[in-house]
């Protein structure tokens, strides 16, 4: 074991893998710049763009008899505009730069990181596990593009027992979301678990499954919310699972990670009380979504529930918001955004065997923006936040006892 790896305050025998990449002062400065740039590009610029659209582009087009009342029409009208081109260029580059800004420090620390991850897998001091399947076939939808411009995507491995992509995804996402500590992560899990406790105060899940868990950052908070729950996270990408396993074992949180395709899982029928996911379904084709939802139906026990955080469906947002979300389809290596969002989640769940009357799609309050509000927003509720700005869109269902 590397001698200079810092030990956790709680004396975990597994060092904190998240701290091993030690950026130089210059690299840190670069990361902070990238965080600010991305935040500006994704939070402030769209509002400026909307003002330009409302005040200039829309009236100009209206004068020519063009209505611009759907996302495609808005996209066509905005594409040649300088305001859009500036926004889009900045946003694309900010996204790419966030991940690039962590790569050098990761490369330097990689041998040490691999050692820590191996140690975690060998010792499992928290009682979790890591089950990998080197023979698992990676679907083309994962391997064709570097999803959301993450260099190397999720699954790539360059050396034995590689964790590089785990580091790039985790540490890059910290820069990306301007949260420099992973302890502030897991916001979606906190939102959903708070809402579940409000909706079903007697619900005591014994086993929870997180689909497309990456490194489990939106799984770990459920273990804190439901003490004693057995936590399982599945993903296709071994480097992300190795990384997540090392984090959980360091934190003293028991999580069972396994490398599986969520379209066909190896757990027995009715094994889970709660199935969750976050930022997952928009990354797979609709055909795969149908298979995953069928797996959720098979794996949920009577009385169980599932909640998936996702991008809001087209039919639930106005034309401008629709246009805003679909930017990623063409520009951010997210080819399934538009097709996923075009689906009616209620119908998708019904087709997978869930009772339509128990299916839901709603916006939940963010924990920081709404510390005292636990219940979901009504779609027509005045002042309702939009997804990603104070609220989180989720869809899901439950099974009768
Ligand atoms: C954007 S990430 C999800 C992030 C994570 N859930 C979170 O909240 O931070 C999408 C993840 O889904 C995984 N994935 C994509 N297709 C999958 C599949 N068919 N089965 C399991 N995992 C899959 C990818 O490897 C990736 O880690």
How would you describe this structure to a colleague?
It is a single chain. By secondary structure, this protein is an alpha/beta fold. It folds into two domains: about 20-125 and about 140-175, no CATH class; about 180-400, Vaccinia Virus protein VP39 (Rossmann fold), CATH 3.40.50.150. Helices cover about 45% and strands about 15% of the residues. It is built from twelve helices and nine strands. It has helices at about 25-65, 70-80, 80-125, 140-145, 165-175, 185-200, 220-225, 240-250, 285-300, 320-330, 335-340, 345-350; strands at about 130, 205-210, 230-235, 255-260, 270-280, 300-310, 360-365, 385, 390-400. Strands 1, 2, 3, 4, 5, 6, 7, 8 and 9 form a nine-stranded mixed β-sheet that branches. β2 (about 205-210), α7 (about 220-225) and β3 form a beta-alpha-beta unit. The protein is globular. S-adenosylmethionine binds near residues 213, 236 and 279. Pfam families: Methyltransf_25. This is Class I SAM-dependent methyltransferase.
Can I get a quick summary?
The protein has 401 residues and is an alpha/beta fold. The protein has 12 helices and 9 strands.
Specify the biggest β-sheet.
9 strands, mixed
Beta-strand content: 5-15%
Which hetero compounds are present in the coordinates? S-adenosylmethionine
Topology as a string of helices (H) and strands (E): HHHEHHHEHEHEEHEHHHEEE
Protein name: Class I SAM-dependent methyltransferase
InterPro entries: Methyltransf_25 (IPR041698), SAM-dependent_MTases_sf (IPR029063)
Domain Methyltransferase: 208-304
Organism: Sphingomonas lycopersici
């Amino acid at each position: 074991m590397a001698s200079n790896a810092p030990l956790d305050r709680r004396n975990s025998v597994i060092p904190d893998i998240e701290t091993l990449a030690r950026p130089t002062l210059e690299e840190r400065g670069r990361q902070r710049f990238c965080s600010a740039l991305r935040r500006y590009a994704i939070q402030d610029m769209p509002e400026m763009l909307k003002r330009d659209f409302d005040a200039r582009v829309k009236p100009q087009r209206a004068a020519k008899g063009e209505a611009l009342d759907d996302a495609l029409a808005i996209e066509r009208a905005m594409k040649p505009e300088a305001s859009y081109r500036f926004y889009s260029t900045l946003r694309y580059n900010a996204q790419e730069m966030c991940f690039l800004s962590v790569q050098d420090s990761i490369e330097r620390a990689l041998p040490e990181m691999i050692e820590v991850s191996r140690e975690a897998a060998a010792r499992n001091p928290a009682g979790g596990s890591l089950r990998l399947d080197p023979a698992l076939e990676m679907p083309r939808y994962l391997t064709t593009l570097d999803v959301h411009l993450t260099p190397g995507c999720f699954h790539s491995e360059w050396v034995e027992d590689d964790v590089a992509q785990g580091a790039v995804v985790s540490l890059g996402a910290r820069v990306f979301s301007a949260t420099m500590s992973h302890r502030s992560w897991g916001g979606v899990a906190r939102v959903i678990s708070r809402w579940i406790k409000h909706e079903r105060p007697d619900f005591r899940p014994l086993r929870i499954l997180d689909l497309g868990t990456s490194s489990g950052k939106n799984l770990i908070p459920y273990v804190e919310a439901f003490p004693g729950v057995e936590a399982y996270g599945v993903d296709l990408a071994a480097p992300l699972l190795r990384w997540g396993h090392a984090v959980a074992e360091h934190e003293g949180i028991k999580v069972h990670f396994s490398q599986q395709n969520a379209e066909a899982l190896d757990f027995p029928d009715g094994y889970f009380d709660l199935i969750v996911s976050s930022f997952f379904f928009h990354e797979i084709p609709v055909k795969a979504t149908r298979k995953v939802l069928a797996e959720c139906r098979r794996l949920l026990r009577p009385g169980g529930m599932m909640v998936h955080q996702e991008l809001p469906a087209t039919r639930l947002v106005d034309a401008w918001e629709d246009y805003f979300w679909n930017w990623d389809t063409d520009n951010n290596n997210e080819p399934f955004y538009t097709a996923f969002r075009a689906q009616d989640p209620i119908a998708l769940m019904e087709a997978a065997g869930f009772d339509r009357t128990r299916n839901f799609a709603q916006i939940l309050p963010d924990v920081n923006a709404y510390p005292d509000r636990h219940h979901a927003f009504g779609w027509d509720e005045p002042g309702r936040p939009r997804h990603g700005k104070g609220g989180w869109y989720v869809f899901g269902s439950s099974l009768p006892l």
